[in-house]
């Protein structure tokens, strides 16, 4: 079932610039954005979990050590 939505002229212009091909629909652009967001969120979640594991195991460098190494 299709639904009509209202978007501002500014959002329409942004969507138009995001088209990968001239005939790409707004629905396709939005679906691509949703899929990209899902991938980024999952990747970020995994990276955060890995970072937490490194911190718990002591495999990290403190800000002070980074400053020391960079001579700051």
Kindly describe this structure:
The chain has 72 residues and is mainly α. It has one domain (9-70). Helix content is 68%, strand content 0%. It has three helices and no strands. The protein is elongated and about 55 Å long.
Low-confidence stretches: none
- Spell the H/E element sequence: HHH
Q: Please tell me the overall pLDDT.
A: 93
Structural class given helices, strands, pairing?
A: mainly alpha
Number of helices: 3
Give the terminus-to-terminus CA distance: 60 Å
Number of spatially distinct domains:
1
Rg, rounded, reads 21 Å
Could you estimate the helical fraction of the residues in percent? 55-70%
The largest β sheet comes out as: none
The number of distinct β-strands equals 0
Global morphology: elongated
How big a fraction of the residues is strand? under 5%
Briefly say what this structure is.
This protein has about 70 residues and is mainly alpha-helical.
Task: Chart the SSEs and their pairings.
Blueprint: H1 9-18, H2 26-56, H3 63-70
Salient structural properties:
72 residues, mainly alpha, 3 helices
